[in-house]
Amino acid sequence: MKMEMKFESIGEKCVLRCRKRCFPRHSLALLSWISTLPLTHHLFFSPILLFFFISLFSLLLFSSLLFHLKLTLTIFDFSPSSPFSHILTFNTYFIPLNKSPHSALHAHTTINMTPLLSSFSLTTIASYLVCFILLLILLEQISYLLKKASIPGPSFVFPFLGNAVPLVRNPTSFWDLQSSLAKSTPLGFSANYIIGNFIVFIRDTELSHKVFANVRPNAFHLVGHPFGKKLFGEHNLIYMMGQEHKNLRRRIAPNFTPKALSTYTALQQIIILDHLKSWVAKSQAQTNSIPLRILARDMNLDTSQTVFVGPYLGLKARERFERDYFLFNVGLMKLPIDFPGTAFRNARLAVDRLIETLATCTEMSKTRMQKGEEPSCLIDYWMQETLREIEEAKLTGEPAAPFSTDAEIGGYLFDFLFAAQDASTSSLLWAVGLLDSHPEVLAKVRAEVAAAWSPESNELITADMLREMKYTQAVAREVVRFRPPATLVPHIAAEKFALTESYTIPKGSIVFPSALESSFQGFTEPERFDPERFSEERQEDQIFKRNFLAFGAGPHQCVGQRYALNHLVLFIALFATLLDFKRDRTDGCDDIAYVPTICPKDDCRVFLSQRCTRYPSFPALQDLVK
Fold it and tell me: How high does pLDDT run on average in the chain?
C-alpha cells in the first residue's frame, strides 16, 4: 500500500491519499479453483453448493467494486475567526465517520460520492468487465447443467452461442450426434444448448407422440419456423389450438374429399408434364447434369397456384405472385432484422401482398360459386361449403360462420401454399434419387404404370387408375418414410412438462421430436429402402403406424397428406414412364442437406432424356380451369 501526504499552503488544504490499485485477484482465484474441479453432476446439482458458489463469487466481485470507490470527506471551518478552509480527503476502503475530526474543527461535514468510473483506469474497468463476463458464463453453465440434469448431452457448452456454430456449419452431423446421445441411454432423448435456448432432442417414438398430443396453451406450442409469427402473423393455422383450431380443420376437410382430390389430379398431371418437357429440353441443351431442386420447387409452386386458386390468378397476377413468393423464400432464411430494404422486411411485405392476392381470389370464387357453377380448384370447394354455412346462419339468425372473410381465408390459403412447397420438393428429389439407386424398384413401377395407363392414349391418369397403382403408392409412402421431408418438428414448452417420471422439461425449452428417428424404429429392416413393407400382405403401415410420423400426429397432423401423397404418386408415375434418367453420382451426393427440409446434398443432379415415343397430349389447362 502506498501512502501519500500532500500539504498546500493555500487555505491550509491538507490532502491525505491512500491508494491501492487492486485487481480482484481473489475473484479470479475462485474461478481458477472452480475450473480445476470436474464438472460432474455431484458437484453442481447440490442446491446448497450452487447457492454457496454464486453467493461467494457475487460477494467477492461486489467487495472488489467497493474497494475502488472514492469517498471524499470535505471539511469546512466556518468559524468567523478562521480565514481558511480545511479540506481533508481520504481515498480508502471505508470512512469511519464517527472518528471524523470535524467536531474539533467546528466544521460542517459533507460526503461526496464522485462518479465511480472517473476513478477507474482502463485496466480496472477491463478487470471488472472480465469478472462480470466470467460470472455470466458461470451462471449460464450452471443453468444449462441444472436443466440438463442427468440426461445425455454436452457437459460444457460454448459461452452464449452454445453449439450454434456446429449446427449451422453441419446440421446433419449435429443432429446425428444428438441421435447418438439419445441412443446412449434407455431414456430416448438428449439435450443441448443453442444461443440461449435449452433444447431437448427426442428420438423415442412414444415420447414424440406425447409432445404431439399435448399442443395446448399450458403445455407445448408448435413453432414451425423460428420467426414465423413475425412473418405469418399470430393467427396462422400453425399457432392455433383448442376448439378454434378443431373448428377450422373441420371446415377445411371438404377441400380434400375424393371428389376434390380427383379434380386436383387432372390439374397436377398437366402441370407436371409441362415441366418435365422443359427439364428434358434443358438437360439436352447442355453436356453437364442439371440440378433438380430449384426446378422441382418451381413446378410445385406452379402446381399449388393452379390447384389452390385455379382461374382466379391471371398471367400478370401470377408473375407478381411468383416474384413475391421468391422474396418470401429469401427472407425465410434470414435473421429477423425488420428494417427497410432488408430481406426480412421485404419478405414480410411480400407475405402481406400474397395474402391480399389470395383474398381477391377468394372473393372471385365466392361470386362464381354463388352462381352454382362446378368447382374447378381448392378454393371453389372451400367457398362452396362456406357459402352453405353462411346461408344456414342467415336462416337461423346466428352470427356469420367463423373463418369466412376473404382476408382470413386468404391467410389460410397462404399457409397451404407454404406447407406444400419445400416438403413436397424434398419428396420429389428423394424419389428420383432412390429410384435411380434401386433399379428393381424402378422396373416394377414402370411395369405397373404401363399396365394401367399409356402415354399414347392421350388420357389423363384417373383416380381409379391411381388406386390400381398399389406398388407405386407403396413406393411413395416408402420415400416419405425413408426420408421424411420435415425431419424435426420444433415445439416450445410453455410450462414445465413431465416428459418421463424422472425428467421434467423446463419451461421455455425448445423440444424437437424427430420424425426421421421414428421412421427407423419398429419397421422390418428399417435401414433398407423396401416399398413392399407397405403391401397388403405385410401391412407395416398399420403394424408400425405410430412410427410413421412424416405427417406429424395429434391435433396438428398434416391436413393435406392425401393430397401430398397423390402428388408424389403422380410425379413418380409420369417421371418413370416418360423419361430416362441417370444420377450424376459423386461422393456424398446422397448425403442429407437441410435447406431447411432435407434434400440430396448435390441438389439431385441428373441427366435426362425422353423415354416414351411421344409425350401425351393432355387437355389444355385453361379448358379445365375456367
Answer: 84
